[in-house]
Design a protein that fits this description.
Layout: E1 10-13, E2 16-19, E3 22-33, E4 37-40, E5 43-46, E6 51-60, E7 69-70, E8 76-77, E9 82-85, E10 88-91, E11 96-104, E12 113-114, H1 119-122, E13 149-153, E14 168-177, E15 183-189, E16 197-200, E17 207-212, E18 214-218, E19 233-237, E20 243-247, E21 254-256, E22 263-265, E23 273-278, E24 283-288, E25 304-309, E26 315-319, E27 339-340, E28 346-347, E29 370-371, E30 377-378, E31 401-402, E32 408-409
Parallel strand pairs: 3-17, 5-18
Antiparallel strand pairs: 1-2, 3-6, 4-5, 6-14, 7-8, 9-10, 11-13, 11-15, 11-16, 12-14, 15-18, 19-20, 21-22, 23-24, 25-26, 27-28, 29-30, 31-32
């Protein structure tokens, strides 16, 4: 198939090319069938299969009027009569010049079949509502191959067509609905500016493009007529003789295998993955969430930050590095600043019991101060009566003792105190302390 190629051109602002023309609708309209049928909007309901259905490609609401804009030559284009082409404002007649619409066969492929029409019937240039009726020398796009694309190009822009307020014909599609076919079949258009598009007479793309497909509905009489071959749906022939194929499981929770109806839970309980269901196979794939997504434990305190997901779908702890300041910042001889230990805990860093601090004087009655293991420096003054200094213990010299205030008292007896031999005679007076 020869595909129409066109260049997107519009008002040029700061070197940017912006499509100018806006708005276009493509739709497929049921026209009739070879047997008993009913048409309701974009639906055609067949009383029975074994027919051919005729659809027409229609287009509507195109608006090829360019937007106001500043071209690269600093000209300001008029919204009514000019367009920015290759950086300069030029006259624009705002007419339709090109169209193409490609049919999407995924909704009926394998069951219904397009009927190959002669080129003059695929795009009937003599149709009274043909979009280019009366325009000479229109080369139609070949529509006889893959996915059936319809389109044409007016060779002479002055002869192209303005929008006249009513939809126009663009091509004919005949679908064979074979005996045994039943249910609903959607024949749609591909929404892609490379596949389905309009261009105005200045080759400006007309966007956005809206599409509406047609639905072929074959009437049913029993539930068996509505079997869609999908074990994940309940097939019912409704009272109006139309098939309904309703999902028979909770799509938010399960993924269903259409071959046998096997259900697989989508959520595997991992906070860092998203389950993705393939409805064609019933397979669930776990995809990692973005790195940094919150998960697990929240931030508990200074050393334990909010857990987050990594690149491979695992929830990891976010502990602060060892040595990070936390808790009490006090810095004394017995109480160092608190720091994180790398496992989420804030260590107090207190000096152990017995570490020297404060007054380092070290005597019998006043040993050096030491830390108590709870962050406090305590004085170690010996209690009153503690033996110190000279421990001699005689009648005239008792052991030295601490006074309870850090001093060592000398406990000698006063002079004249009896001691030793207390017996006295003419030659030996009683002994006394000196």
């Amino acid at each position: 198939m020869t595909k129409l190629r066109h260049f997107l051109c519009g008002c040029c602002v700061m070197g940017l090319v912006v499509p100018a023309a806006v708005g276009a609708d493509f739709f497929l309209e049921p026209i009739g069938a070879s047997g008993p049928h009913t048409i309701a909007g974009n639906q055609i309901i067949l009383d029975a299969a074994g027919q051919t259905v005729t659809l027409e490609l229609r287009m509507d609401n195109w608006n090829p009027v360019p937007d106001v804009g500043i071209c690269s030559d600093l000209s300001i284009c008029s919204i009514a009569a000019q367009d920015c082409v290759i950086g300069a404002c030029v006259a624009s007649n705002g007419l339709l010049n090109t169209y193409q619409a490609r049919i999407d066969g995924s909704g009926y492929g394998g069951v219904l079949t397009p009927v190959l029409l002669p080129p003059t019937e695929l795009i009937n240039a003599n149709h009274p509502e043909y979009v280019f009726l009366g325009v000479p020398s229109i080369p139609a796009v070949d529509t006889s191959t893959i996915n059936w694309a319809y389109g044409a190009l007016a060779l002479f822009p002055n002869d192209s067509q303005p929008y006249g307020g009513v939809d126009k014909y663009g091509g004919t599609l005949v679908i064979d609905v074979p005996a045994g076919a039943v249910g609903n079949y959607l024949i749609d258009l591909i929404v892609d500016l490379n596949e389905t598009f309009m261009s105005d007479s200045d080759a400006i793309s007309i966007v956005p493009i809206d599409t509406l497909g047609a639905e072929i509905i074959v009437a049913c009489s029993t539930n068996a007529d509505c079997d869609d071959g999908n074990a994940c749906t309940d097939d019912v022939c409704e009272p109006n003789n139309r098939c309904s194929n309703t999902v028979n499981f909770n799509e938010a929770v399960f993924c269903c295998n259409p071959a046998d109806g096997t259900l697989t839970v989508i959520d595997d309980g991992n906070e860092c993955t998203n389950g993705s269901c393939d409805p064609g196979t019933g397979q669930v794939t776990q995809l990692p969430k973005a790195a940094g997504t919150t998960c697990g434990n929240p931030a508990l305190f200074e050393c334990d930050a909010q857990d987050t997901c990594n690149l491979v779908g695992a929830c990891v702890d976010r502990f602060q590095d060892t040595g990070t300041a936390c808790g009490d910042p006090a810095d004394t001889e017995c109480d160092n600043p608190d720091t994180c230990n790398g496992t989420g805990v804030c260590d107090t860093n207190l000096e152990p019991v017995g570490v020297a601090c404060g007054d380092l004087t070290d005597t019998d009655c006043n040993p050096a101060d030491t830390c108590n293991g709870a962050g406090t420096c305590i004085g170690n003054i010996a209690p009153s009566g503690t033996v110190c200094g000279d421990p001699s213990d005689t009648d005239c010299d008792d052991p030295d003792t601490c006074d309870g205030a850090g001093a060592c008292l000398v406990n000698t007896a006063p002079a004249g105190l009896p001691c030793g031999d207390p017996v006295g005679n003419q030659c030996d007076n009683p002994d006394t302390c000196d």
